[in-house]
């Protein structure tokens, strides 16, 4: 096991760290003791290079890493492997938008440390509001190709709740800034579910929440630049606008980890193994085609590298064939299209599938057929917090089946109506709160951890 | 600073849609926070999620 971080982070609860409801200690735990207990060798380091054919001196496939632990900071290590699982998650690409991120002029909740800083900045905003100063808080996506709109949605409504509880809501203007074409898209092209005898859209459902909580929204936006107290963005119609703010939490777009690959002779094969976005190419159909020709079959099943079948990429690390939401471009050529979400429950299912494939191949000598779990045939449950508190919390609990719409099997909405649902209330918060403890328990490999499903 | 005024056609349309979206009544809001009702919803949502999780994906 190779990880550049010493601690594991239950990222969904960073939202609550970002409003001061949880501490970083509650969402982090050290990895080394867990791996020691489970008999797994742990290398704290950042993987930099894959040599899937080894070298002329040693033909065994290997991966190079730069150690990040204090005792061996900067040392390079090479590990040979039989199977390699590239489950790096994303690189937070703040550099894609000038001025974006904690090193620039906006805040983030993508890591526990970021969320902690953001909570302190939010506390300052509340102090200014208490002194009678009006404040504008902008929360959303910091680039036209961001994913994880659900996280921005969650943070928006948790901040709104924090402002109400502080008694300063009237002086605060909360603005949700998003690359989604319409509210409720969430990077999955929206959803339709049956409620009280009607098929309703996630768009209307989300807009209802925005109305109830008095949150403003700017959609179809690509942020070009974040400056001190203002940002410049373009919308799909090609118009440019400037938005002033007192506080901004904007998510970055993702790209793959900065890995390079070489063949046995030392030739650079990075572009063979990885998409330009840095994500690993797997068994997907990467043929460029218009939205109307997208198919459920485009999505990968086994997450095996086509070039090297002993390399896998579950979760965010695999290169998706295309978006799920309809991609759109402004007249200026700016792409404003949410990237497909691959985190949460789907990434857990993919990881288990890859583990089962490797287990079978070890048992059968490498010839076993790969297990499959396509996002076009798997469902997902998503709980988006809209406020915390065991008595006054709230969350939108959503299920969808499948994640990638399949209009051949489900011609009406692309998804099975029985498996697609949404409701908001305190029960959703209890579930999200329960998942916090359940998944940390599972990640710590405590007794019977395997009974907790992905 | 002044309150945000929608200017682009997209912002005007989004603002109008939000203004026209269904507003939950006081009774609906109370049901969403009612402990007994939400306890039942908690069980139902969990069951629904377990069904989605256990659905075949291969």
Protein described:
The complex is a heterodimer of chains A (454) and B (58). Chain A has 454 residues and is an alpha/beta fold. Chain A has a domain at 2-86 and 257-314. Helix content of chain A is 23%, strand content 23%. Chain A is built from nine helices and 23 strands. In chain A, strands 1, 4, 5, 6 and 19 form a five-stranded mixed beta sheet that branches. In chain A, strands 13-10-9-17 form a four-stranded parallel beta sheet, covered by helices on one side. The mean pLDDT of chain A is 96. By secondary structure, chain B is mainly alpha-helical. Chain B has a domain at 25-58. In chain B, 69% of the residues lie in helices and 0% in strands. Chain B contains three helices and no strands. Chain B has helices spanning 9-20, 26-33, 35-54. Chain B starts with 8 loop residues before the first helix and ends with a helix. Chains A and B meet through helix 6, strand 13, strand 16, helix 8 and strand 22 of A and helix 1, helix 2 and helix 3 of B.
Q: Helices and strands of chain B: which structural class?
A: mainly alpha
Strand segment tally of chain A: 23
- Note the total helix count of chain B: 3
Termini of chain B, distance in Å? 54 Å
N-C termini distance of chain A = 20 Å
Low-confidence stretches of chain B: none
Taken as a percent bin, the fraction of beta residues of chain B is: under 5%
Shape of chain B: elongated
What percentage of residues of chain B falls in helices of 4 or more residues? 55-70%
Mean pLDDT of chain B: 90
Unreliable stretches of chain A (pLDDT < 50, length at least 5) are: none
Determine the number of helices of chain A (DSSP H or I, runs of at least 4 residues): 9
